What we know:
By secondary structure, the protein is an alpha/beta fold. It has 2 domains: 9-208, Rossmann fold (3-Layer(aba) Sandwich); 218-309, 2-Layer Sandwich (Alpha-Beta Plaits), CATH 3.30.70. The protein has helices spanning 9-14, 35-40, 53-60, 71-77, 100-108, 129-139, 162-165, 172-184, 195-208, 220-223, 235-239, 263-267, 302-309, and strands spanning 43-47, 66-70, 81-83, 86-92, 110-112, 115-122, 146-151, 189-190, 218-219, 224-226, 245-247, 252-254, 257-258, 273-275. The strands form 5 sheets. The chain has a 6-stranded parallel beta sheet with strand order 2-1-4-6-7-8, sandwiched between helices. A two-stranded parallel sheet has the order 3-5. A two-stranded antiparallel sheet has the order 9-13. The longest helix is centred in the middle third of the chain and has 14 residues, at 195-208. The chain starts with 8 loop residues before the first helix and ends with a helix. Residues 1-12 and 17-34 have low confidence and may be disordered.
Amino acid sequence: MSTNKKISRRHALKSMGAVVVSSVVASSGVFSLTSFEAKRNKRIILYFTGTGNCLYIARQLAGENTELLSIPQMVKRGKYEFEADEIGIVYPVYGHMPPYMVRQFIQKAKLNAKYKFAVLTYGEMKCDAVEIWDRISRKAGNTFDYIGTIVMVNNWLPGFDMNEQIKIDKHIPENLQKIKTDISQQKHWHEPVTEEERQIHREFIARSGLNPEVGFLMKSEKYFTVTNACVGCGICTYVCPRGNYELTARSVKTSGDCEFCFACIQNCPQRAIQFTKLEDGSFPDGTEKNPNARYRNEHISLMDLKLANNQKK
Ligand SMILES: Cc1cc2nc3c(=O)[nH]c(=O)nc-3n(C[C@H](O)[C@H](O)[C@H](O)COP(=O)(O)O)c2cc1C
Ligand code: SF4
Ligand code: SF4
């Protein structure tokens, strides 16, 4: 993809997608632990997930002595201080940026650990996500020793057909194995970013009109419509990490600040949640690739997602 070429708005939508092959070059400061020490280390992994990819990766990175903690649950409990030998964070990139909740979380968090790692999942184009996380976390006083990315199913409904996405071999086991090895060796490394990737992100921000200091923070009442296909099962009221859905006597209502994680629209069994068509130049505009295709990571159950995201008392 050329750096100078202007991207159209439609291209910006899709380009959270064009393949970027990242070079994997070890840079500095690797040191090994004995397997005995590695086993004794207490590890905490904090995660945010909309459709389960990050929960799956977080589980895969969990060792013998690991506590897995959902960021929405920590936010709900007002818990921001953590202590362990190793602390990791796993989140999905949204427009190459962290979800707003993750951004806010890291600004308040006190992560007391000798070794901190971050693994960012993405669908096809991560751009300078690693540098963006390094900047945000460093500014918050939480510097990460290791920041890597892993490509998964792209759950960005406006640009991708979920039925097509699940057929693509994204070499997850091999890529995951490399990350596991790096982390077990407490490798100090940030995945390299190219100037072209920085440029594509700048163009995306310009085209989408998103505030780079915020990222995707939308309003669920603006972007989602509940149709009369709704059977009142209540799933959306559990899987939303913002608790934006409410069952009323006659229907389901949604409102509030929205992470745009798609947990609601992807998990509604009736496909009763749809994007609202917007003709006022909003990004995105409510069109999607395949309104009949929905996705949740194959290793993650609906119950797992409910437990991860539920905001009810
Ligand atoms: C709002 C939104 C924005 C996204 N932006 C990007 C992006 O910029 N680049 C990319 O490769 N994937 C992007 N994706 C895809 C997700 O990062 C990817 O599918 C991720 O693994 C989802 O994780 P989860 O299943 O834990 O929610 C985006 C997805 C959403 C919902
Ligand atoms: S998940 Fe779908 S069917 Fe169930 S209550 Fe929500 S909108 Fe209705
Ligand atoms: S309303 Fe839907 S997209 Fe928004 S935060 Fe809740 S689950 Fe995620």
